[in-house]
Structures are given as C-alpha cells and as structure tokens.
Amino acid sequence: MQPLRVRRVALTWVVAAMACLAVAPAQNGESKPRRIAVFGSSVANGTGDELAKEGYTGRLRELLAPRGWEVLNQSRGGDNTIRMGPRFAPVGAPEPNVRYLLPVHPTYVLLGLSLGNEGIRDAATRADKDAIFDQFAKGMRGFVDRSRQNGIIPVITLCYTRMDFTDVEYEYTRRMNLLFNGWDVPTVNVLGAVDDGAGKWARGFWFDSLHPNAAGHVEITRTFVPTLFDALQRGKPMPKRIVVDNFVHLTPGDLRIVFAPPDPVHPFAVGFTARAEQNGTVATISGRRLDATIATQKLERGGRTVEFESATLTPTGNFVSAVIVDGGRWAYRGAAGRLIRSDVRADRSWHQLLVSHYTARGQTLLFIDGKLAGTLDERLEPSRFALGGTSGVDARDFVFYRSAMNADEAAALHGGSLLQASLEVYSPLDNVELRAGADVANLAQSMTGAQVQIGNH
Predict the structure, then answer these.
(1) Which of 88, 222, 273, 435 is the most buried (most CB within 10 A)?
(2) What is d(CA 159, CA 334) in angstroms, rounded to the nearest whole number?
(3) How many CB atoms lie within 10 A of CB 322?
(4) Weakest-pLDDT range from 120-129, 154-163, 219-228, 244-253
(5) Are residues 169 and 86 in the same domain?
(6) Are 293 and 403 found together in one domain?
(7) Which helix (H) or strand (E) holds 133?
(8) What was the pLDDT predicted at 125?
(9) pLDDT at res. 119
(10) In this model, does residue 434 exceed pLDDT 70?
C-alpha cells in the first residue's frame, strides 16, 4: 500500500472547526415537530401517478417515514404564485376542502410550483415572458419570506419541464433554476431527473403533456437528499464554497476517498478538481446497469381511456465506469467500455471534471472545465464513487449531487458557484485524515459523507 499525502496550512483547522459546528444540533432543534408540508400545484399533488400514490409527495413520505418524518400533501392542481397565495392561511373562517398551509402547523414547507402554470408558454413576446419570469421569482420569494415570518423553514423544488415547451421556455426554466440555486434557500433539482435534454419529459416518464407518470414521480423523488431535513433539523447551515490552496494527493495504490450513498441513486452528478500526468484511472463509479422497457399503459379516467407510455427499469448486471487519463488527455470510460475522449491535456494544470448522468433518458455527459466533452448512452444505478486509482492525482472540491446537471449548471459550477440543489456531499479535501476509515468533512446539508478506504471494495 502506498501512502496518502496531504498538504495542510493553518486555514484547514478553521474549516475543520466550521465542519464540526455545522453538524452540531441546533439548540432545541430536535424539539421541533418533524412535519413537512408539500405546498404546490398538480405535480406536487401527485397528478399523473397512475398508481395513486400521491406522486413524489407520497413517495417522499415513504422515504422519510422510517426516519420519523411526517409529510403532508397541501397541494392543489392548477395553482401558481397568484392562486396559491390565499391558501397560505385562511382569512376568517376556512373554506371547506381547501388545503391551507398554516393550519397544519408544519416545521418545513416544500414549495412546489412551476413556470408552466405561471403562464410562461402562453406569453407572446420576450417582454411578456420576462414579466412572467419576474412575477414567478417575486412570488416564490414572497412565499419564502412569509414562511420564515411564520416560523416555517422553506425548501424549493426547482422548475421542471412540459411537453409543449420550446427552446425558449426551456431557457427560462434553466435560468430560473440557476436563480433559485443562488438564494439562501435549500432547493431540489427535479429537472435533472426527468429532462430529455430539450426541456421535455424523458420518454416513458410522463403521463400527459404537463405531468409525469408514476415512473416519472419516482425519478423526481430520487433527487431529494434523504437526510436534508435531518440536517436542517440539526441546524446545519447552507454550504458556501471555500477557496483554499490545499489538496489531497493520491499516489497510485489502494487508498481511496469513497462515497457509498446509503440510499439508492438514479440521476447524479459527481465532480472534483484534479491534476494528473500519468495515464490510468483517476476515479471510479460502480453499481448496476439498468435496462428500460417501455410499454403502453391504459387507464380509465373520467369515462374515457387514457393511453400513455411507462418505463420499467430492470437491473442487468454490475458495472464500473471511470474518469481516466488516456493518451495524455482526460476521458471517461463508460459502463460498456466505450470512451468519451476530450481534447484537454492531463498536465500540471488544475481541471474540473464533472460526470452527469440522466437515468431516465439513459445518458451520461462529461464536462471538463464547464464545457461538454461528449456523451454516452447508458443507464446506471450507481452505489459507490471513489477518488484514486492507478494514476497519481491531486484532487480537491469533491461534490456529489442526487440529480444530473445540464450545460448551464456545469458552467456555473466551474465559474465558482456552489450550486446547492440536491447536493449531498461537498468536501473541499483540504484536510483529510490519513487513517483508513476516517470520515471526510462534508459541508453539504446532509448527514452522510465520504470516507478514506483501503482497496477497491
């Protein structure tokens, strides 16, 4: 076994102290009710879920119930920032059968609205669309502020897609998501689960033009960091990018920095900044390959038969893919051994590597320094991510997201923005213990993290 060497400066002890404070329980934090209200429109309400499980809200309830969380569905189809406002709290006597927010006394509110319901598609001119964009942003900011004024902690689901969106609406959707990513509010990147790459639902994951089917709702649920609300309950703050000169040096050998998510992963983005000069493996991703079978389903709704396509994902064997140096240039070797070769030389310069995977549409994207290097068609269910391999590498700024990233997001991440939507791990890697089994500091709002491990398993 060859040693792991780490450069350190005094600032690392400051960061370590901050990390310790970040995971400490907030005073009286655990005394707050573990109650989440999902407050949004039809997708949040579960529309399109042919299995009648309340869509991603019902599946979020299933995910969090064993952890002691209560998830309430306070959503209503057709709402936007204007129509949802009166449901925040009743004025006078509550109207019957109206799902209000304040009367259910949540500790957290998940705000789940869309640009589609706001009217972005029907706005005729750029000026009209800009006005809708501003209205939606202002309305969501209003719900955030009003929630906090009432002692409720807000979380936002980012904007998603529709089958009638053009490139123009897709652009506005991506812009809004980047805007929300910069707010002081935890967010969930649902677009990174269901996007077909053109702002529409991935095939087999939609019920009708506006809504996902059950398979789509499942993929959306995968974008939630399972321990996000535990981290919020314990007072862990939102992460901020830390700029340091330190890094971890991994010599060729069997010592790795490993993240093994305890909950299943579908869409993901994993990235790090690195420099390496030798050909070989720098990082690996392993788990199971998936096959998608798409079949036509029929459902009786309102006296008529509705037909839609539904995807079923089935494991087909194990895989190991890798970020590598091949012929002196950075590359990605996919699950079937095919390569995405870049033109970026592996030299003594630092480069940001980002692997972004859309399970629903079955595609992996490799970004280097914020630019797309290429794509591969494959469908993965990863269970282990490891830095280190047969090539010596310096590395820092390890990130793991439970959602895929598009080109705008990759460029923003490379430009210095620490996007926090669906972020489960952010480890600067500037202060890593050499001991095998040691935890690696994680500044993201989650209760998981990477470890130092020996060997490939």
Answers:
(1) 222
(2) 30
(3) 21
(4) 244-253
(5) yes
(6) yes
(7) helix 126-149
(8) 97
(9) 97
(10) no
